[in-house]
Amino acid sequence: MLQAPPAQLRFTGFVEVMxxxxxxxxxxxxxxxxxxxxxxxxxxxxxxxxxxxxxxGRIAIIDATPVRHTRPVGGSSIADxxxxxxxxxxxxxx
Length: 94
Known about the structure:
This protein is α+β, with helices and mostly antiparallel strands. The chain has helices at residues 24-34, 43-53, and strands spanning 10-12, 59-61. Helix 1 packs across helix 2 (43-53). The two termini are 21 Å apart. The model has no long low-confidence stretch (mean pLDDT 78).
């Protein structure tokens, strides 16, 4: 996600997984899923869903604290990643 000045914080249903910040409760809910994906694909959608189901509230992007990408942004398509490396989808998510 790109920084959106002058926003300080934006609530969203998707979060980039490059540099996540978790509460203890959210990390407890999401940690098992992090081990299931070597590529990270799909986690941007899965993690907010898991937090919502655990009753932990909404996910936000903190624009006041930008992150610098150290590698080129973008890259391969999901079609280039073997199915076994993709993030699992929680039941009921599409």
